């Protein structure tokens, strides 16, 4: 599973950091960014700043996306790899989860 933030929509309230400070961080500009291997992915603007999510953080990242007031946390699920992830979320969140299945498409 991977995650990214659309910084243009972020309100900077920090709820995501409260839910999972290993994956989300607020930088000096007051906006949230995703973190991978301890490094903020601070090249905002789209899926180029994706961060891989460790299995132990999957649940809290999905929860953060559900409560994000800016509705700006986006999740990518790799269907074969992430088959055991329960991403059955409310309809408000559904548009921000992209399920990919490259094996099935091949
Ligand atoms: S919860 Fe959403 S709006 Fe709030 S700081 Fe995190 S990404 Fe930004």
From TrEMBL:
<dbReference type="GO" id="GO:0051539">
    <property type="term" value="F:4 iron, 4 sulfur cluster binding"/>
</dbReference>
<protein>
    <recommendedName>
        <fullName>Ferredoxin</fullName>
    </recommendedName>
</protein>
<dbReference type="InterPro" id="IPR017896">
    <property type="entry name" value="4Fe4S_Fe-S-bd"/>
</dbReference>
<dbReference type="GO" id="GO:0009055">
    <property type="term" value="F:electron transfer activity"/>
</dbReference>
<keyword id="KW-0249">Electron transport</keyword>
<dbReference type="InterPro" id="IPR052395">
    <property type="entry name" value="ET_Ferredoxin"/>
</dbReference>
<keyword id="KW-0411">Iron-sulfur</keyword>
<keyword id="KW-0004">4Fe-4S</keyword>
<keyword id="KW-0813">Transport</keyword>
<keyword id="KW-0479">Metal-binding</keyword>
<feature type="domain" description="4Fe-4S ferredoxin-type">
    <location>
        <begin position="1"/>
        <end position="29"/>
    </location>
</feature>
<comment type="function">
    <text>Ferredoxins are iron-sulfur proteins that transfer electrons in a wide variety of metabolic reactions.</text>
</comment>
<dbReference type="InterPro" id="IPR001080">
    <property type="entry name" value="3Fe4S_ferredoxin"/>
</dbReference>
<keyword id="KW-0408">Iron</keyword>
<dbReference type="Pfam" id="PF13459">
    <property type="entry name" value="Fer4_15"/>
</dbReference>
<dbReference type="GO" id="GO:0005506">
    <property type="term" value="F:iron ion binding"/>
</dbReference>
């Amino acid at each position: 599973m991977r995650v990214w933030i659309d910084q243009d929509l972020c309100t900077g309230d920090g709820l995501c950091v409260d839910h999972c400070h290993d994956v989300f961080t607020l930088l000096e500009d007051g906006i949230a960014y995703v973190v991978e291997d301890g490094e903020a992915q601070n090249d905002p603007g789209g899926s180029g700043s994706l961060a891989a999510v460790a299995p132990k953080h999957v649940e809290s990242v999905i929860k953060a996306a559900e409560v994000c007031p800016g509705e700006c946390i986006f999740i990518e699920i790799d269907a074969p790899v992430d088959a055991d992830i329960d991403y059955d979320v409310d309809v408000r969140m559904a548009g921000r989860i992209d399920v990919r299945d490259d094996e099935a498409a091949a």
